[in-house]
Amino acid sequence: MRLLVTGGAGFIGSNFVHYLYKERPDWHITVLDKLTYAGDEKNLAGLDASRFKFIKGDICDEATVDKAIASCEAVVHFAAETHVDNSLHGPDPFVYTNVVGTYQILEAVRKYDKRLHHVSTDEVYGDLQPGSPEKFSEETPYNPSSPYSATKAASDLLVRAWIRSYNIKATISNCSNNYGPYQHVEKFIPRAITNVLEGQKPKLYGKGANIRDWIYTQDHSSAVLMILEKGKIGETYMIGANGEKTNQEVLEMILELMGKPKDWYEHVADRPGHDLRYAIDATKIRSELGWTPTYTDFKRGLSETIEWYKNNREWWQPQKAATEEKYKKLGR
Ligand code: NAD
Ligand code: DAU
Question: Which entry of 8, 50, 196, 315 is 20 to 30 Å from 18 by CA?
Fold first, then answer.
């Protein structure tokens, strides 16, 4: 198998590449990544050139995408602009990368008749009420709230249309909030951990009552690989590990694991349009493909993640000050 992974130098993409490199030793992996502020080639260090190739390039560039897809057998498409707060204050790159970039991937996949797995998010469904028994499923109508989720929803709809109108061999997955190593310090869990490591109080948006459904990133990787190999063409699969927690619960757990009082944080201004709750019903991937998550103990996953950030200061430190400066301007 010659697999192309877009966005493979980012958080989930690089974790997926390392997972695949271990799990499928006879596959060749090519990563296509623009190396935006969120991508780092160092995330892919240690991979042997006989089984791995890196291409620096933009998925919005037709010629680059055409060439990369012509020489692979299948594509897993992670590349995206991914941070909600950034999208609220500068939606431009979200529209280009998430919509136009996905369009370029689809056109090349159609031209060369290649297999595509499109990686998406549960945010395309909007939000749920805290306390309700409802969860997102493959049938939930799209109702995105932010420029980020609207552009991811647009990309999913393009994939669905290309499946129906052009019969491309594609699948889609919509996963919940990932955590683990190599996540950018702009995101909630790494931001809180690195704040504590720098002696700064972590920040909680609004009342901290918003709920996210956390999954360890390696479980996302195993689900994507399973869909790529066993998924039914044309289908969408929800990915989640029953990890619902309020932001306040997550923050208190981080503080406890890092030896700080549980109220050692600051409330800051809420995110405009802040989604209240995400929750995934993963029945389909579990029952039809037999997938199960391995990291079901959130506290253990969190404590391993804290250890990783403690031991990899040189990885996150260069981005920390600029990220906090950006937040300061937003009052968050
Ligand atoms: P990330 O921001 O950490 O990484 C994105 C990667 O894409 C970076 O390496 C970046 O350089 C690359 N990229 C951005 N624009 C590009 C372009 N125009 N051309 C080529 N490469 C480009 O993102 P992540 O958190 O790893 O998310 C990866 C994918 O998974 C995204 O599609 C996201 O929507 C989806 N997703 C994320 C989560 C989550 O919790 N983070 C959950 C569900 C789904
Ligand atoms: O649900 C999947 C999505 O999860 C992905 O599609 C996105 O790419 C990914 O960024 C993530 O989106 P969120 O907006 O949920 O993640 P974020 O880490 O930005 O925030 C998680 C929650 O924590 C959210 O309710 C906002 C809150 N928050 C965030 C930060 C950065 C805080 O309370 N304090 C903070 O400092």
Answer: 196
